[in-house]
Amino acid sequence: MLGSFLPMKRYEELVARGRAEPSPLLAFDDEVVTASYNREPFLIGHRLTTHPLFSLAHLFALCRRMPRESILYRTGHIPGDADLDTSYDRYKANLTLEQVLDRFEDNHAYICINNPECDEEFAPVIEGLIGEVAARIDPLDPGISWYSTYIFISTRDSVTPYHMDREMNFLLQLQGRKTVHLWDPTDDAIMTSEEKDNLLAHIGGRPRYSAGIEARAMTYELTPGLGVHHPFIAPHRVHTASELSVSLALTFRTRRSDMWTDAHRFNARMRGLGLHPRPIGANALVDRTKCGIARLGQGMHRRLEAFHRHGIDQTA
Ligand SMILES: [Fe+2]
What local confidence, expressed as pLDDT, does residue 91 receive? Predict the structure, then answer.
């Protein structure tokens, strides 16, 4: 699994670090964050554009020293409704990473660096950014439980196809321009309750794009120094402009989004039994109860598995 779980003690250290940061790299509008966090997208500012670590030369060096499985790439023109999960294999054109890096622009390439925070040179900066996010959202949504970051390097006119992730995100634009289309995850015309339950229960693929939702897109033009917040599981599609683009995604889950996830899994289970559960988000108390039952069920399942594997209950 990508990313890192964050024990509570480590989270509190990061919040303290974010609060004490004398020279923050992120700029939040407090009123906007309070009104919009996890409800709708909003812009933030950042100061990473002149940071030497994020120059193209440094990023290509990072690609060469990271474990090969951490670097995903594709080449050529990708349709906006392509399947994201299979796009890296499908649009690779049999090129090696070395070939892609050597002739990045000519190959019309797109690179995703998974978890640059695992690199000792990048770790302090990225942990500092997570600390700043944690410090800002702590009063609204305390307890980041997991985070994972990604650097995207794209040549001109590239597309990240329509998809949704199972977490929240702050996508920061470092070089070039990006147009980000986001859709409201609570709008039934975008994703039904059943699609969201299945998404979070990992049943089937992610909900697919349909042309009918295009007019409902919320569009954000990102230039270097700007970022946009993606609420929990908000669908999005991203286009770069006519120059090279570099962005950094800070994705994270919190104790509350973990609760939503487990409540969706409970609903998916109920649907599997032919029932029609109430949508998640309609009643917080009901959602917490569903989450509690789902976790109890998972715990029982693990114990039973261990019992069958070992013949005795070694989990007690
Ligand atoms: Fe995404």
Answer: 67
What are the φ/ψ torsions at residue 34 (nearest 5 degrees)? -60, -40
22 CA → ligand 1 middle, Å: 31
Please report, rounded to a whole number, the percentage of residues in the chain having pLDDT higher than 70: 97
Domain parsing of the chain, residue ranges: 4-254, 260-310
Q: Report yes or no: 298 and 269 within 8 Å, Cβ to Cβ.
A: no
User: How many other β-carbons are positioned within 10 Å of the β-carbon of residue 210?
Assistant: 11
In this structure, are residues 88 and 54 in contact, taking their beta carbons and an 8 Å threshold?
Answer: no
Rounded to the nearest integer, the mean pLDDT of the chain is: 93
Indicate the burial class of 288 (C-beta count within 10 angstroms; 0-12, 13-18, 19 or more): middle
Q: Which of 134-143, 152-161, 169-178, 219-228 has the lowest mean pLDDT?
A: 152-161
CA of 193 from ligand 1 middle (Å) equals: 20
Strands (E) across 50-154 are located at: 71-75, 109-114, 144-154
Which residues have CB atoms below 5 A from the ion given as ligand 1? 165
Q: How far is the CA of 75 from the centre of ligand 1 (A)?
A: 18
Task: Report how far ligand 1's centroid is from the alpha carbon of 172 (Å).
Answer: 12
pLDDT at 123: 97
- State the pLDDT at residue 261: 98
Task: Please report the DSSP string for 197-242 in residue order.
Answer: HHHHTT-SSPPPP-GGGGGG-EEEEE-TTEEEEE-TT--EEEEE-S
pLDDT digits (tens, 9 = 90+) for 1-26: 799 999 999 999 999 999 999 999 99
The CA 292 to ligand 1 mean position distance, Å, reads: 28
Q: 2.60.120.650, 3.90.930.50, 2.60.40.10, 3.40.30.10: which CATH number matches 4-254?
A: 2.60.120.650
d(CA 125, CA 68): 22
